[in-house]
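Thread title: Can someone regenerate the structure for this chain?

I was given the following input by a collaborator and told the matching C-alpha cells would be attached. They weren't. Posting the sequence so someone can regenerate them.
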Amino acid sequence: MKPLLPALFISHGAPTLLTEQGPTHAFLAKLGSEMERPQAIVCISAHWNTSAPMVNAASRPDLIYDFGGFPDELYRMTYPAPGDPALAERIALLLKDQGMEAGREPARGFDHGAWVPLKLMYPGADIPVVELSVQPRQTPAHHAAIGAALRPLREQGVLILASGSATHNLKDFFGRAVDSPPLDYAREFDDWLCNAVGTDDRESLLDYQEKGPHALVNHPTPEHFLPLFVAMGAGGKGKVAHRAFTYGAISMAAFAWE
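Best answer:
Regenerated them for you:
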C-alpha cells in the first residue's frame, strides 16, 4: 500500500508569491514533486468564508482575482485545473455523516488562496481540485472536526491542502518591504506555533487565542488561521515543513500532518 499523502497547511501570502522569488516560492515550487502525485486535491481556502461548510461542485471552475492593486500580469494568469463534482458530493456526504450539513456551490471559481499556491505546486493544472470553505464564526474545534471527517479521502489518494496564513496582520503588512525583518509579535507567535505543531500540542492549538502569544494581534480575524485546524484534524503527528517571513508581519510557515 502506498503511504498516505500528508495533510498540509501552507501560508499563501500575497499573490506576488507567484512572481517574486524567495524561500516560500522555492518551497512550494518543489513541494508537489516531492510527494506522491495526488488523485485529486481538496483545498480549504481562507478566502472562501461561509456560515456553514460549502463545497465547490463546478466541473470547470474559473479563476477569481480577489485582490486589488497588484501587477497587471497577475490578472492575466490562468489555472485551468478541472473540478470534480463527484468528489464534492463525497465531501458533502462525509460531513453529513458527522452531523455537518454542507452546501454545494455549482459555479464558484478558484480564489487566490487556492490557485496561487497550486500554480506553484502543480503548474500543469491537470489534477482535479475541489475547494472547501471556512466558517469564521465557528471554532477551531469545528474546523478540526471537518478535517477528521475528510480523513478517509487520504486513503483514496486525495491531498488535503489547507491554505491560509500562520500570521496575518494586514495593518502591519502594508508599507513594508518584502524582506523586512519579522516584527517581534509575529516572530513570537510563529515560534509558539511551530513548537505546538511539532510537539503535537493540540489542546494549546485549539485554544490559540488564549495560549498563543499576541494571538489577536497576529490574527485580528480568524479566517486565515482556521484552515490549519482542518489539516490538523485530517492527519496524525504534525511537523514543521517550512519557515519564512514576508513583509515583516506575515509568517509563511507550512506544516504537514502525517
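The CA atoms of residues 9 and 48 lie 16 Å apart.
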